[in-house]
Structure formats: C-alpha cells, structure tokens
Specification:
Elements: E1 44-48, E2 54-58, E3 70-74, E4 79-86, H1 90-98, E5 107-112, H2 115-126, H3 128-141, E6 147-153, E7 159-165, H4 173-183, E8 186-191, H5 194-201, H6 226-230, H7 237-240, H8 255-262, E9 272-273, E10 278-285, E11 290-294, E12 304-307, H9 308-319, H10 341-344, H11 405-414
Parallel strand pairs: 2-5, 7-8
Antiparallel strand pairs: 1-2, 1-4, 3-4, 3-5, 6-7, 9-10, 10-11, 11-12
Length: 445
C-alpha cells in the first residue's frame, strides 16, 4: 500500500528504511535504520504531508512503521493522510532542527491508511490546482492585494489550507466566507514569504542543483548585502538574487570562513611606503592570502601583488622608519600568470596561412622591329660580363627570326608560348570575331 520509491529500482539494501534516493522534497537519509532496536527507540515519528509541510506524531498504538508507510493521523477536524519519513533515534535530531516550542502537543497516529482513505486522499489532491486558480479569481474580484500561491487539502477532504503572499495586512474575512460557500470545506489561511513560495514550487538554481529551500532547508535566516561585500562579490542584483527575487540563501554559507580569513589580511586603509613610491590598496584575494597594491589611489598603475605576510613586514618596517627598496622580497615584480586562455595564446594560431604560389609564366619573346630582323626586347650587346654576344642556338642576327618564309613558320611553331586550356563554353568559334573598338558593330542581332 506504500507509494514509496527510492529511485534506485530497489537495488539498495535499505530501500524502505534509510534510502536517501527518494525523489521527494526534504528527504533525509536514516543512517541508523539498519540497527535492530532503532524502530523501538522512541514512539515519536516524523510524518510528511504535501511538501514542505512536516509534523511529529506519537505512535501510541505501537504500529510497525517504517520509512515510506502511508498512515492516517489525527487532525482538527477529522484525520489527515501522510507519509512516514523518519523513525528511531534520528527523530530527536529532527525535532531539534525544527525548533519546536516546549509546549508542543504531539498528536496521534491512528492506523495504516486503508484503500478507502487513499482513494479519498487522491481525489482531494486532484482538486488542488483547480481550487487555487478559482480562488485567485475570487480574491481579484474582491479587490484584495494578495496572491494565493498554493492550496493543500486535508486527507479526508474536510479542510483546505490556502497559502498566500501579501506585502501588506489583508482583511480576508469576506474571502473566507466566499471560499467556504464555493468549495464547502473548512478554510484556513496561512501567509508565507517569497522564499517559502519558491520552496513549495521548486526549481533549479544557477549552480545547476535543485533549490536548497525545496530539498533540505526548513528555516530561513535573513541575508544582507554585507555577506556579498565580505566575500568580494559583485553587487549585481541579477546575480545575487535567487528565483524568489530575494538575496540567495547560499550567501550565508561561507561568510564565517571569509570573516576568519580577513583577519589575516592587512587593513585596506594602510598604504605601503618604499624608497621609490607609495603604494595603495587595490584588492585582496582572501583565500590565497595575497594583496594587490598600486601607486595611484584611483587608477591601477604599477600594480604589485604580494603575500599578506610580506605586507605585514613592510608595515612593520614603515612604523620603524624604514623603507624597503621594493614591495617584493627579491626586488623583481612577480610575473603575472593569466588564467584566461585568450590571453595566453593567440586566437588565430590555428588559422591556416594562405600563401600565394608564384606561377611560372613563360618569358616574353619581345616585339618585332620595323625591319623584322631584330628583337626589340633583346639584351644590349655589351660584353662586360664576358659572355659571348650570340646565344647558344641563336642566329648571328642578334636572336631575330630567320629571314626565309619556311624558317619563319618553323620558328613560330617552336617558340609559341603555352596557354592554359579554355573551357569548352568559352572557346570562340573561328568564324566569330569580336568587333574592333574603332569600328562600329554592324552585325545583325
């Protein structure tokens, strides 16, 4: 009859007792569940209803209860249906964590839930969303400045709890009458804050994990912007605010560690004096115990990063009237090692370099002279370099063409420059000639 699932397909040995893989909100791991006398150590049992509501009940009938059992408990009026989430010795720690008042009255556990109880419970749970939407419209029609965030029905369906958010005091007496006439149940109104609403709705935080307020956090402490200043965080409201539009609760997690670490750093108002200049405080890396100083009080200039120990040494030397030669111990500035990959390497180092290839073009043979016998582009016949005036196979006329017609054809065929083959589409037909620029085009188109 239990709807408890551990999320591990029953593979763990403590699947119904201490498994922490249950996919419900505010679940704790019972690491004492495998002890033989753990269940009989106390009669107080922790029972969870619609998350995050939990309460503690007395097992006066000495029922054999284990984690995940669905039970019927005492309520006012009638009875409620809940799931057992903790038994044994760890219940005392849960009571201490919940900060219950000394005069808290524990109610009783009646029995294991029957099939009739479960059917009525599931039927009541199915009406919660429609009731919330309709109640919002009723509150809007009455002109109340409030937002109904959630509705929870009691297990027997005789009572409904309306959770609402309001910035000011709201007189909802007329609203209770209208809701009671509409839904025919007993109405209870509970005001919650923005953090409690986020815990009831749930979600994923910017860290990639499920929200703390809907997984393990039950009490909410105030968060101030001083927690962000102590940790040297940027005071950006968009980054410091959570899904509830309030400051993130996780800002308080490490404040104590940062306060202790700040005690080992020099004061920000103390400047360091050397022989050459005066250095002012710029920033501090709290966890690495390093401090950065600059020669200008308002602009970062000649920055030097030294350890906190070295800074205290220079402060003590200045008090004694001494000035060191430099901030660093060896007198050389510490090499800055950037953690940014874009600064370490050039972003274009993987780009292929396009190199222009030089094409071996044939050398021009020169233009014909008016006499048709000598090359206009021939070298001057100067024998300053000691070379013979005539080339290897040239004629004695200075490299000109042969003078007979037969030799002219043979010479033109042998010395014709090589041309790249043209595309078939670009080959010009022999009978088609482009018109000259000096002569108008007389072809019929």
């Amino acid at each position: 009859m239990s709807d408890y699932t551990c999320g591990n397909s029953g593979a763990c040995s403590l699947c119904a007792n201490g498994c922490s893989l249950k996919t419900d909100k505010l679940n704790e791991y019972d690491w004492l569940a495998d002890l033989p006398d753990n269940a009989t150590a106390t009669d107080i049992v922790e029972v969870q209803f619609k998350p995050p509501r939990k309460s503690f009940f007395l097992n006066t009938n000495h029922l054999d209860l284990k984690k995940g059992d669905i039970v019927a408990v005492e309520a006012n009026p009638g009875h409620d249906i809940g799931t057992v989430t903790m038994t044994g010795r760890l219940v005392a720690l849960q009571i201490k964590k919940a900060r219950l008042k000394p005069d808290f009255e524990f109610k009783r556990i009646y029995r294991h839930a029957r099939k009739v109880d479960l059917d009525k419970w599931r039927e009541a749970r199915a009406q919660e969303h429609e009731t919330m939407i309709e109640s919002r419209q009723i509150a809007k029609d009455l002109g109340l400045k409030m937002k109904i965030g959630d509705v929870e029905y009691q297990g027997d369906g005789n009572k409904a709890i309306f959770y609402y958010i309001a910035d000011e005091r709201v007189d909802f007496r007329q609203l209770i009458k209208v809701l009671a006439e509409r839904f025919h149940v007993r109405i209870e109104m509970k005001q919650i804050g923005a953090r409690q609403e986020a815990g009831r709705i749930g979600g994923i935080g910017p860290c990639g994990r499920e929200l703390c307020c809907c997984t393990w956090m039950t009490s909410f402490s105030s968060v101030a912007t001083s927690a962000a200043r102590l940790q040297d965080l940027s005071l950006n409201p968009q980054k410091l605010a959570g899904q509830c539009a309030k400051l993130k609760c996780c800002l308080n997690y490490e404040v104590d560690q940062y306060v202790e670490a700040l005690k080992s750093l020099p004061s920000r108002q103390i400047s360091l004096h050397t022989i050459d200049a005066e250095y002012f405080f710029v920033k501090a890396d709290i966890l690495h115990h390093t401090v950065t100083y600059s020669t200008d009080k308002h602009v970062l200039a000649n920055e030097r990063t030294i350890s906190a120990k070295r800074a205290f040494q220079i402060i003590e030397m200045n008090r004694n009237g001494e000035k060191p030669e430099a901030l660093t111990e060896d007198g050389k500035p510490k090499q800055h090692i950037s953690l940014d990959l874009l600064e370490q390497e050039n972003i274009s180092r993987f780009d292929s370099q396009r190199r222009k290839k030089k094409k071996n073009k044939p050398k021009p043979q020169g233009n014909r002279g008016e006499n048709g016998g000598q090359n206009a582009g021939a070298k001057p016949q100067n024998n300053a370099g000691g070379k013979p005036q005539n080339g290897g196979n040239r004629q004695q006329n200075g490299g000109g063409r042969p003078q007979n017609a037969a030799s002219n054809k043979q010479y033109a065929a042998n010395n014709k420059p090589q041309q790249r083959p043209r595309n078939n589409n670009q080959v010009r037909k022999p009978n088609q000639h482009r018109p000259s620029n000096n002569r108008p085009n007389t072809s019929n188109e």
